């Protein structure tokens, strides 16, 4: 027993000495709630700092930061057959018209900063139709390029939405401040830039394509009576002196004299001397 007691006593002495050297192992006085909250906040800040800037020893173990690799216009791959399709060509023409309308509207707004833009924006830009055209024209690109062009298309839709929000006028206040005018102009500039960034991915032949004019409509079928009336009348040779054309003899015009000086009366019969001209006996 004595040996056991002595070993226990020695262990207690060693633990006492260790507690003196390591204060964390020694009994602590009761801690207040405020102190506990402070300690928890410090631990959270430390953990956030480690997450934001991991040690260099863990740099090779952490996964790389994910992001979309942007494709340059010169590296874009597209399908020439789809590019030549009618749906894509019509979509590109519609997008060019949208950009032209935006530039025209911006010029109007520069002249009148208090104009009501909302009705014009909704008239010139059908959001659903614009979204469909954007989706159609970007199908010509490969999957990797579409990751970049999709960003451009979303930016165009976002620019129009923000342009409409910036153009709103308060009820009863039809005037815009210089700050609001500058905000509207900012979204006009952003919209034009995003259209231009998207067009850089298309070849010039697709952007400058002019559709051929439609064929003329077929002529309407003419009736037999109209066709007969439209036939040209053959030219008749001049009658010799003292005779009248058959048509004039049948009408019996007064004041006209036939062969021998006899006056032609209304409805008087006559003989035909030749195939075209006739005279009197």
Describe this entry's structure for a reader:
The structure is a single chain. The chain is mainly α and 281 residues long. It has helices at 2-21, 33-52, 80-83, 86-111, 117-124, 127-137, 143-166, 178-199, 204-207, 224-230, 246-251, and strands at 244-245, 277-278. Strands 1-2 form a two-stranded antiparallel ribbon. α4 runs antiparallel to α8. The longest helix is centred in the middle third of the chain and has 26 residues, at 86-111. The chain is elongated and about 170 Å long.
SSE map:
Layout: H1 2-21, H2 33-52, H3 80-83, H4 86-111, H5 117-124, H6 127-137, H7 143-166, H8 178-199, H9 204-207, H10 224-230, E1 244-245, H11 246-251, E2 277-278
Antiparallel strand pairs: 1-2
Summarize the entry for a quick read.
The protein is mainly α. The protein contains 11 helices and 2 strands; from the N terminus they run H-H-H-H-H-H-H-H-H-H-E-H-E. The chain has helices at 2-21, 33-52, 80-83, 86-111, 117-124, 127-137, 143-166, 178-199, 204-207, 224-230, 246-251, and strands spanning 244-245, 277-278.
